[in-house]
Amino acid sequence: MLASGRRLMDTRRRMPTQSSPSQSAEDYLERIHELILEKGYARVVDIASTLKVRQASVTSMVQKLAEDGYLDYKKYRGLVLTPRGREVARRIQSRHKTLSRFFSLFGLDAKTQKRDIEGIEHYLSAETMDVLAGLTQFFEEHPETLERFLKSHETEKRGTRSASKR
Questions:
Q1: What are the structural domains of the chain?
Q2: Which residues have CB under 8 Å from 126's CB, separation 6+?
Q3: For 17-21, 46-50, 62-66, which range has the lowest pLDDT when averaged over its residues?
Q4: What is the pTM of this model?
């Protein structure tokens, strides 16, 4: 009973609350922030085209984000992130950059990185992100250790492939 109670608590902890945006909302906030940095503004049409969704879907999400206090939105005008919205967008952007730096250390191509980062960036705890940032910095400051790991990993991969051919 205790184990299932723990599982239930863990599940609740991961579910978005009123105070934290959903994964989809985080994606929108991140993209809106990027557009504002790139162009100086973000419009529904720009968000829709870059996220490859319908404008009606963007309008609906933008209205919800405005209701939740993440941005200011006036119909037929641009959007402005509130301090709360900027904080979420910057946090997601930082997570994305940390994961990209980490995966780049191991020579993963940009397409694989993008797919994997989009798949995991919203689910990692702050503690895990802190460890990955520290590990990334460690490997960047100790390239000889990274090189030893990469050689060891390549040797293990070859050994696994040879064993599976037998």
A1: 21-87 (1.10.10.10), 94-165 (1.10.60.10)
A2: none
A3: 17-21
A4: 0.72
